[in-house]
């Protein structure tokens, strides 16, 4: 069965008229953990208090849930609630949100389009995982409509974004904080699990505003995440991609943190790209090491995303700016329509699997921009 005993992602659900609380997905049901495990940590409306307990608690809890769902199934069966009866919420109260830029292919493609007269990769790119600080207050759960942003599209030009795009990414959720001044230790001592992320991007706003400090309003209007957080333990690991030059000692890999995750992007139900996470250049342990090397503190609920997942093939690109080469080469849909960037009413779904483990999906529908008269 999919969503089986080796999967068991955590999320936050509610029944009509009740407060949100933590559950685990099993098949087409959600196990009410407050009731099944008699532990009030799961009565919270986010995973944060549970995630703060740390790695030993994460491991023991997962083992206990697996035991309850197999040998003690008759005891906990009454706490399994059909998904059709529940509403799913933001799984995590996001503290700080950071987005990296870890795909060599994505960085090269975007570099070619945004900086056609320069080298596609900046000189720092192979030496450190480049990132920027995003906006945690507009991280929303799958299903939340995304209003087309408006803003400056060039000198003296204001209006609704005309180049609305998505970025298919993985997000890593921090459970255990660090003290300010002290870099993070082992990856699995801090990171609880993985979500799917759609980093909605307004390419026309971005290309005008981003120099020299990076994306600002082009990416802060909405970032969507999947309702399920998959524990690290559920994910098969592979060696990371070879790196040249060898990174500085603080960035050197001590364990295999490559992830063999197959991602799909769907536009209005049709698959338009299949980005392979296994191709990412910088691995998540390297992102965490870099994020904290200067002494920046981690907090429970921090979310750091991988950056757009793009592979070497055209059909593996994780954004429409790449798939359509900045709108110059539209993609053809099964309906006979073509698309460059997103139109109002379009629904984008990103879903992913790692072997038998599914990470679920993150979905969002584009709503029309506000009336723009005030800026005209
Ligand atoms: O090359 C640039 O100027 C920026 C490209 C991006 O859109 C960055 C971004 O959001 C990071 C990523 O998703 O890989
Ligand atoms: Ca991004
Ligand atoms: Mg964003």
TrEMBL record:
Pathway involvement of the protein, from the record: Amino-acid degradation; L-phenylalanine degradation; acetoacetate and fumarate from L-phenylalanine: step 6/6
Protein's GO biological process: homogentisate catabolic process; L-phenylalanine catabolic process; L-tyrosine catabolic process
Pfam families registered for this protein in UniProt: FAA_hydrolase, FAA_hydrolase_N
Keyword Mitochondrion: no
Residues the record lists as binding Mg(2+): 219, 223
Residues forming the catalytic site: 106
Gene3D superfamilies xref list: Fumarylacetoacetase, N-terminal domain, Fumarylacetoacetase-like, C-terminal domain
Domain of life: Bacteria
Keyword terms of this UniProt record: Calcium, Hydrolase, Magnesium, Metal-binding, Phenylalanine catabolism, Tyrosine catabolism
Binding site for Ca(2+): 99, 167, 169, 199
Catalytic EC class: hydrolase
Fumarylacetoacetase N-terminal domain segment(s): 7-91
A molecular-function term among this protein's GO annotations: fumarylacetoacetase activity
EC number of the protein: 3.7.1.2
Necessary cofactors: Mg(2+); Ca(2+)
SUPFAM superfamilies: FAH, Fumarylacetoacetate hydrolase, FAH, N-terminal domain
Residue stretches making up the Fumarylacetoacetase-like C-terminal domain: 98-366
Binding residue positions for substrate: 101, 115, 206, 210, 308
PANTHER family reported in the protein's UniProt record: FUMARYLACETOACETASE
Protein known as: fumarylacetoacetase
